[in-house]
Amino acid sequence: GIRQFSAVATMATPTGTGHTGKLKFHAGPEANSKVQEKLTEIRRQLTLVRAAWSVPGPSFGSTAANLLPMVIFSDMEPDDIMAIAQLWQWKHQECSRRPSHSDDCRPVLMFCADFATKDGGTVFEKKLLLTSLMLGLKPVRDYQVVTLNEPEYYDGSVHDFVKDIVQLREQALEASAAEIVRLAHEEEQIDFYFIAPGKGHIGDLLEMVKQKDEEAWVKLCKKARPVMYTGSYNTRGTTDKDFEYICQLAQTNALVDISKFIFFGAADAHPITASADSFASDTLAGQMSEHDELLAAAIISFIDEFQGNLVCPDNKALFKGAELQEDEKQRFAKLASVYQHQGIREYAQQLVADAGLWAKVVNYKQSTLMAFAHGTCDMPLCDQVCFLYEFCRKDEAHLGTLAGCDAEGTTWWINKRSGFSGVCAADGPVPEGAVAMGVKALQPRLANPRDEATLNRLRHLLEQHLMAHLKMLKPASSQRCSLL
Asked: Helices 29-53 and 293-311 sit at what angle, rounded to 10 degrees?
């Protein structure tokens, strides 16, 4: 049947096992079937575009493309794609007064796929579908895909297209490097957003820019404004070479270290900032579903597979730190059968309802199970914080919203083992285990993280810019799914 979205009138605080998620998309059977058809079509088309991928030249990137002065490195999960749409819409509005600007301008975008831990099964195809539906972009022509030679997924399967993407990594880097060189010669400032683990790709890409055009590289280091989302997963997956080149981009403009935890007040954060599901405006899921039911169905399908893998009965970490008694093992075996025959949502509902088993589910997986049980889509809020920072720092109505935006006399530090990062005085000690990176940095945060009026404005900003971007896209969504 149709999944209806529920509007929540007040900013409720989660308590106990209560659930205040709002990303309850609605998609009927026809849209759900259409998603499966589109995924089959994408796999067929990936086979056909192998020929285009194997030929260097115009198929990689578009020399005629109009480029926005922004470069984005992403792993293209739904929260990334939403953040890209919001940043793109913001930059589009900012650049709209320039004579050279046109509605078809796009950012330079690189998708770092990870077939070992994230993009197996049909997750990769679903990311391509979501990128088409939310950004209107096609791989190879509009953005590049890179990956490491680590093809085996957690279940032992190997994705059909890993070998092709690995073999063509150099061409993909070349295409993105050429676009960055263009920006270095043409623009006064270029915004870089690093919102995924670098895995060596960032360093290799920027090294290629330097090798292609030394003059462009010198200009780039003076014009770049690097923004990095520094969740510990991203930071731990970024290599020394990646960090070296990112720091070189911070010669003129201080590096912006975005941490969702810090931005929303750390220990003083309002509970609704826990995830995109809890922070979303009351109307976002309904608006998106009404605008494009195929997109709503694609998001549900992605979440069911991607987030479902994190809490399925086979996941070894589900009861991490706890031991099931014999009767609990028997009850859980029955739930595993429910998962196989009735699906992730019925399984989650019954697991949440079993007080004994639920008490032993590891804490960090409970929000995902609660979302499935209540029919919402659990996803991180993380990367969308990059947009919130950018908007608030430029918009006069939001002056005073932010603190921590002065980079004078600072240095950036990274603890590469824990993945934590921060900013301290340039002449002061860095935390134990951390390394000073030798560049100025700032780590913005809300001046009043518990102010609900501010939080309401921010959640509606996310909705407004995402919906504005979706409405700007042409042609219709069903026609944007083609990769050819």
From this structure: 80
